[in-house]
Design goal:
This is RING-type E3 ubiquitin transferase. By secondary structure, this protein is mainly alpha-helical. The protein has 3 domains: 142 residues, Herpes Virus-1, CATH 3.30.40.10; 119 residues, Four Helix Bundle (Hemerythrin (Met), subunit A) (Up-down Bundle), CATH 1.20.120; 73 residues, no CATH class. It is built from 16 helices and 5 strands. A hairpin with a 2-residue loop joins strand 4 and strand 5. The two termini are 47 Å apart.
């Protein structure tokens, strides 16, 4: 039976014995599945499978190299080069060494975390960036599965870098007004956290039993119930809230000859949590269509008036991401840099970001890793890939 995986912040501990990795007995060994275990615990396993996801360990444990990126973070001596029996081609060996060194360089951004969780605030990386970097550092580059995971992790890390650069180049004072202008342009409206919540609950009250009402009757019902607490409630404003739910495909609409259509809440949206999530997703979708990038904590403040819904908003943002989102974000960053004059010359990173964006993020897709690329934008050298990431990181610190 699989063992529960550790928290990502405990990346310097062996998840089996919970001891800190070190360079003699408890050397960190990463598996193809992305988990890292100390050498002592690996040798004690009763069956050759990862204890966390039960993925079979097909490679001889003695042939798996030490994860030097983690080793350096616990003060271990990192050899300049490790002979790797699993890589025989001189060209592949060269690419592996370059990639290993780049991952080691990237791992140094996690150094503040290695001296205690209380120091995370000192890191120049945001929490999401740290988490994605930890995923990359745990990849086993000598195994095909590990290399494919590393490619996806590198892409994810690059995409997050672009998002954070866009956020840095947006005017926070204009962000809110631009968002609500985009919502209004689609015939919708957000009435503020408290009033919007009440309006949605009243829509649910009217329709949760499967009733079918015309838009006019539904709007009047909500307005009449809202007015005692929110005198500013109007048929127009509530009509725009209903339109937002309509855009989110929350209603089953029945057309009638010579009469108003009837609106019925779809069964899957007859709880407040489900309806609210679809409502929030629609607003995030509108923002993305308008080229706006808003952080989860900002979303929580805008839609709820607090900071306790960051995880909820992050999950919505993640779900709306598509393989094309990264390339679109690169275009948006280019436009943002043009507006600001690009004093740090970040536009020079565009070829590297496009290289990362062209990696297929789909699980199970094989990437061409060490062999020379047929089409450079689609099958990058691993070394070239990681060099791109390093350059993005250095520039994002400016």
């Amino acid at each position: 039976m699989p063992v529960q995986a550790p928290q990502w912040t405990e990346f310097l501990l062996c998840p089996i014995c919970t001891q800190t990795f070190e360079e003699t007995v408890r050397r960190p060994i990463s598996l193809g599945c992305g988990h890292t275990v100390c050498k002592m615990c690996l040798n004690k396993l009763h069956r050759k499978a990862c204890p966390f996801d039960q993925t079979a360990i097909s490679t001889d444990i003695e042939q798996l190299p030490v994860n030097t990126a983690l080793l350096q973070l616990v003060g271990g001596q990192v050899p300049k080069a490790q002979p790797v029996a699993l890589i025989t081609s001189p060209e592949d060996s060269q690419h592996y060494e370059e990639a290993r060194q780049c991952v080691e360089e990237l791992a140094l951004y996690l150094k503040p975390l290695s001296v205690g969780l209380s120091s995370t605030a000192q890191s120049i990386l945001s929490r999401p960036m740290q988490r994605k970097l930890v995923t990359l550092v745990h990849c086993q580059l000598v195994e095909e599965e590990g290399r494919v995971r590393a490619m996806r992790a590198a892409r994810s890390l690059g995409e997050r870098t672009v998002t954070e650069l866009i956020l840095q180049h947006q005017n926070p004072q204009q962000l809110s007004s631009n968002l609500w202008a985009a919502v209004r342009a689609r015939g919708c409206q957000f009435l503020g956290p408290a009033m919007q919540e009440e309006a949605l609950k009243l829509v649910l009250l009217a329709l949760e039993d499967g009733s079918a009402l015309s838009r006019k009757v539904l709007v009047l019902f909500v307005v009449q119930r809202l007015e005692p607490r929110f005198p500013q409630a109007s048929k127009t404003s509530i009509g725009h809230v209903v339109q937002l739910l309509y855009r989110a495909s929350c209603f089953k609409v029945t057309k009638r000859d010579e009469d108003s259509s009837l609106m019925q809440l779809k069964e899957e949206f007859r709880t407040y949590e489900a309806l609210r999530r679809e409502h929030d997703s629609q607003i995030v979708q509108i923002a993305m269509e308008g080229g706006l990038r808003i952080a989860p904590d900002q979303w929580s403040s805008l839609l709820y008036g607090d900071q306790s819904h960051k995880s909820h908003m992050q999950s919505i943002i993640d779900k709306l991401q598509t393989p094309a989102s990264f390339a679109q974000s690169v275009q948006e960053l280019t436009i943002a840099l043009q507006r600001t004059g690009d004093p740090a010359n970040l536009n020079r990173l565009r070829p590297h970001l496009e290289l990362l964006a062209n990696i297929d993020p789909s699980p199970g897709k094989k990437q061409q890793i060490f062999s020379p690329p047929i089409t450079p934008c689609v099958h990058p050298h691993r070394a070239q890939l990681y060099t791109s990431l390093v350059q993005v990181y250095v520039s994002s610190r400016i």
